[in-house]
């Protein structure tokens, strides 16, 4: 048999596999885009009402005679529009992760499938918890601090777009930081970092959590503590979860 034909045949098979994977990826991206678009269009008629509910934590902390303002004519439309898009992403997230899971599943072994499926579901759950924690607990505390820290001669009137940007940044920070257990488990199970090394370096990691919280949160002690302490707690959860998974693999 001609060796060159074998090489050409192997190259052809590789190209077919690459094109097959690209086709599946394209399908996944199309389904994900359609899902977000459908949810977004469904939410758009209620964008004003959604923004009213969204601004409740700020309105509750503002003085009686204060109100929210729009410093630019376009923000009256864009702020509710961006909020609807953000909510569409949150609502669509389970389906987006399902599309991602469906794409990578054929390339995984049986043990990897069960582990990654568990990590994806847990990461989704933790992301939602992080955003809920930021909205219901952290945001009211931060707003209370800033509103009462202002001198009495100043009448606070927050721009609707500035408030939205501040909140979205806060939500993503807490949503991503609540993924710490998933990151720890992935690093340990993937043999990138040893669990014993992390235990030995625990005190440095705790200090690092406070340092990161100080950098990415607003300049007040409450928001820093609200992020640093959960990060520490989630780090410990990640260590114990990784230990449990390791013991389960041995058994």
Automatic annotation (TrEMBL):
GO CC annotation: TAT protein transport complex
Membrane topology: Multi-pass membrane protein
GO molecular function: proton motive force dependent protein transmembrane transporter activity
Pfam families: TatC
Regions crossing the membrane: 28-46, 85-104, 125-150, 170-193, 205-235
The organism's place on the tree of life at top rank: Bacteria
Keyword set, alphabetical order: Cell membrane, Membrane, Protein transport, Translocation, Transmembrane, Transmembrane helix, Transport
Cell location: Cell membrane; Membrane
GO BP annotation list: intracellular protein transmembrane transport; protein transport by the Tat complex
NCBIfam families: tatC
Function per UniProt: Part of the twin-arginine translocation (Tat) system that transports large folded proteins containing a characteristic twin-arginine motif in their signal peptide across membranes. Together with TatB, TatC is part of a receptor directly interacting with Tat signal peptides.
Family in the record: Belongs to the TatC family.
UniProt subunit comment: The Tat system comprises two distinct complexes: a TatABC complex, containing multiple copies of TatA, TatB and TatC subunits, and a separate TatA complex, containing only TatA subunits. Substrates initially bind to the TatABC complex, which probably triggers association of the separate TatA complex to form the active translocon.
Protein name in the entry: Sec-independent protein translocase protein TatC
UniProt gene name: tatC
